[in-house]
């Protein structure tokens, strides 16, 4: 009978130990899960911040490109309008008409080349800037641990 009591006590102690160990393991899992949730929340906040920053960069780039394009068109228009005055005046005289036409054509050709080049460079710079922003956005996305990648 004593052995049965001892066996019952040992069994109760083992079951109590298993219960305590199971409880401790459960608490460890909860703490680890809680920590992972906090890490994921921080990663999500960082990702949202980066996305917002990239949107602001894209908006600033679009705005800058538009301002340069509009300013170039305005300067071109004013320039051509001002240049037209002396050319029209000189073309009204027979003695200077032929030479003035050649000079005007040369002036207009060079001017159009310059303004077209400015617009082209602006578009290319805008394209490269957008590509750089997009590359930066792709590189800053969070990397999932191997067990979560799909």
UniProtKB/TrEMBL annotation:
- Official protein name in the record: Uncharacterized protein
């Amino acid at each position: 009978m004593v052995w049965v009591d001892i066996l019952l006590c040992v069994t109760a102690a083992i079951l109590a130990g298993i219960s305590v160990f199971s409880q401790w393991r459960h608490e460890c899992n909860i703490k680890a899960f809680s920590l992972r949730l906090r890490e994921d929340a921080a990663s999500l906040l960082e990702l949202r911040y980066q996305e917002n920053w990239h949107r602001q960069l894209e908006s600033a780039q679009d705005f800058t490109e538009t301002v340069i394009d509009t300013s170039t068109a305005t300067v071109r228009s004013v320039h051509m309008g001002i240049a037209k005055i002396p050319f029209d005046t000189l073309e009204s005289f027979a003695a200077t008409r032929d030479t003035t036409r050649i000079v005007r054509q040369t002036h207009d050709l060079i001017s159009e080349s310059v303004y077209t080049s400015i617009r082209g460079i602006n578009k290319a710079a805008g394209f490269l800037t957008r590509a750089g922003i997009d590359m930066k956005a792709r590189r800053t996305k969070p990397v999932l641990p191997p067990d979560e990648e799909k």
